[in-house]
Amino acid sequence: MVHAHRDRIYMRMDIILQLSQRGELNQSQLMSSCRLNNVQHKPIIDELVEKGLIIRFEEPWGEQNRIIKYKVSEKGREIAKKIFEPYELLFPRSEDKK
């Protein structure tokens, strides 16, 4: 049996493209939409924040809680437009491979 495996570059690309297309997402929504595990793949999100490709911010949620949200930065948007989108057009990933 062959298991599908995604390289870390595709994980980064998926995160930036999801945020570019959908705007702001909380951490759970972002991880779910990119099909990533919150515990295993959180370092990838932290790395993208450190490099200035995505922005992490907090919003109030209820009386005393806050929710973490992410959005793509201008730098991340430029990379998505100039590199990731053309790359996906040239080398599309086949979703039906298993």
Query: How much beta, percentage-wise?
Result: 15-25%
Q: What percentage of residues falls in helices of 4 or more residues?
A: 40-55%
Largest sheet: 3 strands, antiparallel
Count every beta strand, where a strand is a DSSP E run of 2 or more residues: 3
Gross morphology = globular
Let me know the average pLDDT: 86
- The H/E string reads HEHHEEH
> How many H/I helical runs?
4
Low-confidence stretches: none
Amino- and carboxy-terminal Cα gap: 9 Å
Supply the helix-strand structural class. alpha+beta
- CA radius of gyration is 14 Å
Q: Strand order across the biggest sheet?
A: 1-3-2
How is this fold's topology laid out?
Layout: H1 8-22, E1 25-26, H2 27-33, H3 38-50, E2 54-61, E3 65-72, H4 74-90
Antiparallel strand pairs: 1-3, 2-3
Structure, described:
The protein has four helices and three strands; from the N terminus they run αβααββα. With 98 residues, the protein is an alpha+beta fold. The mean pLDDT is 86. Helix 1 packs across helix 4 (74-90). Helix content is 53%, strand content 18%. It has helices at residues 8-22, 27-33, 38-50, 74-90; strands spanning 25-26, 54-61, 65-72. Strands 1-3-2 form a three-stranded antiparallel sheet.
